[in-house]
Structures are given as C-alpha cells and as structure tokens.
Amino acid sequence: MSAFIAPDAVDKAGGRSEPVLEAAPDESAAPTTDSAPKVAKQWHPWRWVISAVALILLAQFVHGLVTNPGWDWPTFAKYITAKSVLASLKVTLELTAWGTALGFLLGTALAIARLSNNPVLRVISWCYIWAFRSIPLIVQLLFWFNIAYLYNTLSVGIPFGPSFFTFEVNGVISGFTAAVIGLALHQAAYSAEIIRAGIISVDAGQLEAAAALGIPKVRQFRSIVVPQAMRSILPNATNEVISLFKGTSIVSVMAIAELFYQVQVIYGRNGRVVPLLLVATAWYIVLTTVLSVAQYYIERHYAKGTQRTPPPSPAQRAWQKLREIADSGSTAPRGATR
User: CA 36 to CA 30: how far, in whole Å?
Assistant: First the structure.
C-alpha cells in the first residue's frame, strides 16, 4: 500500500496549506464480488443405480428371512439358549483359549529360535514350522487322538536311561486333551511366522541406539521391540484366533461335545437342520464380533506411539454426538423451531 500528498489541504487557522498524507488505493487487492463462484457437482448416475439395486437385493433377502417358513425361527429361538448348546459353547471357548495360549506361547519361542544366532535352533524351528503348516489340521487331530496306538505308556526319567515313573497314555491324554494338543501345535506354526514378521519389522537402528545408550537387551525387547511389533502382529494374530475359534468345529470328528457337534446331535434327533445350523452360525458371529471389538481397542492402545491424539473411538463419537444434540436443544430459544 502506498501514500500520496493532497495539495489542496489548507490549514483553516493559519491560512497556509500543509501536506496531508492519505492512503492510496491498493491496486493489488482482488476485486470484490457480490457472490462467490459456485462449483458444479459432478453427477454419478451409475452410483445411484448400483446403490438402488443393492438395496433391492438386500430387501429381498431380509423379506425371505422373515417370510420363508423354512428358516423355522421358533426352533431357532428355542435352541439358541438351550443348556446343551451353552454347555457346548463353553467347550468351544475352552478349546479356543487353550489352543491360543499354548499356541502363541510356543510360537513365540519358535520365532525367537528362528531369529537366534544358533544354527541348530534355527533349523529345528524352520523344520517344525514347515511340517505343521504342511499337515492338515484334521490329520493332526486324529493322530493325537489315536496316539495310544503308537505309545501305550509314557515314562519320565533320564534320556536313554532309567525312568522315574510310567503312566498309560489313555489315562492321561483324553479326547479333549488330544484336541488341545493338536490345535496348539498347529497354531504355533502359524503364530511363529506372525511374531517373527512383527519383530523384524522394527527398525534395527533403534536397537543400535538403545545399545549405545546402555539399555539392557531385556528392556530393549520389552520397551522398544514389543510395542512397535504389536502393531503389525495384532491384525494377523486376531485373524488366526478367529480361524482357530471356527476351526474348533473340526474336533467334532473326535466326538467332542463342542458347539458344532452338539448342533449335529440335536438336528440328528429332530430333523431341524437349518434352524440348528443358524444357532451355531449366530454364536460364531457373536463371539467373532467380540474378538473384533477387542482387537480394535488393543490396536488403539498400541497405536499411541504413532499418533499424538488418537481419533475418538466409536463409543466416544456416539457420546459426543449425543452431547451435541443435548447442548443444541438446551441452548435453543423457547418456541424456536428447526
């Protein structure tokens, strides 16, 4: 912005003229307009067509669920909370919990062995992962279920020496125990690779910097490696847990009263196949949803290092929206309409 002198400015008291500084108009200022230019929105006709077709198909599916008598919703409501179904659901959860805990514990040891500098441990770990990922789960379960055909008794003692005590295999390894062993050993092979991938995803320069600062290796692993590795481990690990939860239905071949086996027993008696399959499906969906919600909050916890202020959770967003609605209603003038 520049200035210029107005020559016709006259001092009324003394009768002499004095220069007066006045602001010159800014030539670089943008011209003002009455209204801002409007941007025409792009029209997407096919998007609306596809959405309408999808909604029509969804409405037809829901209509079929409600009106088709073949779904037999009264039978579904009768058995969804039956005692036998809930008892079998407990067995399914126990198999999943034991298989997950033992599988990831052994998988962590295998992952550390594969990353160690000991060639013997690396080869043994690699061979274990290769073997158990190659053999189908149902074969492993049936093998452990029939382990007594190979070993009638087991003994504990000095290797290739005297034994301290001996016990029969059938008295120790029951059907449930055999299922837990098979699921855990199978899960360990996959979890080992997931954990190993998470560990090697951490930048090695951070460990070098921590070693230069004199931080012990145990603390490095606990404070540096684990929090960062968990961000890549958790999604894949949750998928494995969900797969294991649904994979427990395979132990029905061993006559273990888990959820799917119990459903088969019930519809084998009353012939109501579809509603009983819906009972199993509903429980699988409910528990899988619970695992997915737990995964979200665990990932949110370990994502604190990547974001200063993590985004609000769905519950927090819903609560914030309710507060906004309540505040807008309380501040509105009496008699105001929307």
Answer: 13
What proportion of the chain, given as a percentage, has pLDDT over 90?
Answer: 29
Determine the Cα–Cα distance for residues 116 and 109; give it in Å rounded to an integer.
10
Partners of 78 in the β-ladder: none
Give the span between the Cα atoms of 227 and 231, in whole angstroms: 7
Cα separation, 154 vs 180, whole angstroms: 19
Residue with tokens 């230019």: 37
Integer Cα distance of 69 and 61 in angstroms: 14
Tell me how far CA of residue 13 lies from CA of 10, 16, 17, 18, 80, in angstroms.
9, 8, 10, 12, 102
8 Å CB contact between 241 and 96? yes
Helix (H/G/I), strand (E/B), else coil: 6:
strand
Give residue-wise pLDDT tens across range 28-79. 555 555 566 776 677 778 888 999 999 999 999 998 888 888 888 899 999 9
Nearest 5°: the CA angle 230, 233, 239 is 135
Nearest to 279 by CA among 78, 28, 25, 15: 78
Q: Is 303 exposed, middle or buried (0-12, 13-18, 19+ CB in 10 A)?
A: middle
Three-class DSSP category at 164: strand
- What are residue 17's DSSP bridge partners? 10
